[in-house]
Design a protein that fits this description.
With about 100 residues, the chain is mainly β. Helix content is about 0%, strand content about 40%.
Length: about 100
């Protein structure tokens, strides 16, 4: 099933939470933070401005991004794939 975001919305696949700290300590599931990194799967056309023009999104497919902790709407496909739909404003940074 293909999901095509509309307007300034972006479809992302959330990257897995880290199982181990930088110092080598393994974290139990209860101590893991909600992941805030994702890879962009699809991008909408862009935001429609008051003038009627469409402002193209600043991000593109395959970019890795950071987003707000409680941002977006979770969706899943028939195949069991889990995705998140965000607005472009919910994206805080692109990771290079």
């Amino acid at each position: 099933m293909a999901i095509k975001p509309l307007g300034d919305r972006i479809l992302v696949k959330v990257l897995d939470a880290k199982d181990k700290t930088e110092s080598g300590i393994y974290l139990p599931d209860s101590a893991k933070e909600k992941p805030q990194e994702a890879e962009i799967i699809a991008v909408g056309q862009g935001k429609v401005l008051e003038s009627g023009k469409v402002q193209a999104p600043e991000v593109k497919v395959k970019d890795k991004v950071l987003f707000g902790k409680y941002s977006g709407t979770a969706v899943s496909t028939k195949e069991g794939e889990e995705y998140l739909i965000l607005r472009e404003d919910d994206i805080l940074a692109v990771i290079s």
